[in-house]
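note to self — DONT lose this again. spent like an hour looking for the file last time. sequence + predicted structure for the chain T wanted, 88 res
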Amino acid sequence: MTLRATFDGADHIVSGSPLMDTIACTRADRLVIASTGKKAGAVTLASTLTAASDGETLTLRYSLLDGGQEIASGIGIFGRQRSGTPEV
């Protein structure tokens, strides 16, 4: 998947994704990015990416949609890996 988007809320082209052909991103605040993906004009993805204020975790919350109905959702929590820190 390839995309280049700015935080202007406008639709930007996505290539190589079966889920969406455009994405629109906004900065809700300095730690939160909200995104909406669309396929043929219909919303297929709603997501938020939130950085913890201490910079140690990044949380992704997403919903996949079909015909306006949520068909899947999830949360991913990512911890910062420092160099020299063993992976678990």
